[in-house]
Specification:
6 helices; Phosphoribosylaminoimidazole carboxylase; Rossmann fold
């Protein structure tokens, strides 16, 4: 959890119980082949005690499901959507075209083009329909960004993010101290 090389203990559960009931973050992906890439996002949200849901929504194989998911997301209580896709990677942009919620795009690297196709597809949204794009395969940052978005209105999430940042700082300082011994 917490990125490569980081083995962090769980954060304290500081989230009000009313916020634990319904999913606040939706994690969607174009295919089950994306699941291993998205697993770290689920692990981060679990660490922060943020309720989330995970499902597959394909923009080209299940277009009706895409419209249903994106158009109902805000009415179901979701506040942020993390959308991952590889290749043509139109899922995040299509979701952002339908929902008023913030959409975080995760470009997934396929066997060809090393994910550059997915990255450029997701990051190059035309003006008017934003997708906050993280680095290729960086589901950890997608989840952390979702926590920060939620933290803008929920002090407990903001405090938890501060604690997470402090943990990272402590880990690096520990490594520096070990090097300098
Ligand atoms: C995209 O096509 C998915 O997001 C996945 O990254 C890619 C390949 O899908 P599969 O052929 O593995 O189902 O829609």
């Amino acid at each position: 959890l917490g990125g490569p090389g980081l083995a962090l203990p769980p954060l304290q559960n500081t989230v009000p119980s009313k916020l634990r009931q319904a999913a606040l973050v939706g994690i969607i992906m174009g295919s089950d082949s994306d699941l291993p890439t998205l697993k770290p996002a689920a692990e981060i949200l679990t660490r922060f005690n943020i309720p989330f849901e995970v499902t597959i929504v394909s923009a080209h194989r299940t277009p009706t499901r895409l419209v249903e998911y994106a158009s109902s997301a805000h009415t179901r209580g979701l506040q942020v959507i993390i959308a991952a896709a590889g290749g043509a990677a139109h899922l995040p942009g299509m979701v952002a075209a339908i929902t008023p919620l913030p959409v975080i795009g995760v470009p997934v690297a396929l066997k060809v083009l090393d994910g550059m196709d997915s990255l450029l597809s997701i990051v190059q949204m035309p003006r008017g329909v934003p997708v906050a794009t993280v680095a290729i395969n960086n589901a950890v940052n997608a989840a952390l960004l979702a926590v920060r978005i939620l933290g803008a209105h929920v002090p407990e999430y903001r405090d938890a993010m501060h604690a997470y940042m402090k943990e990272q700082e402590n880990i690096v300082e520990g490594k520096i101290a070990a090097l300098e011994e």
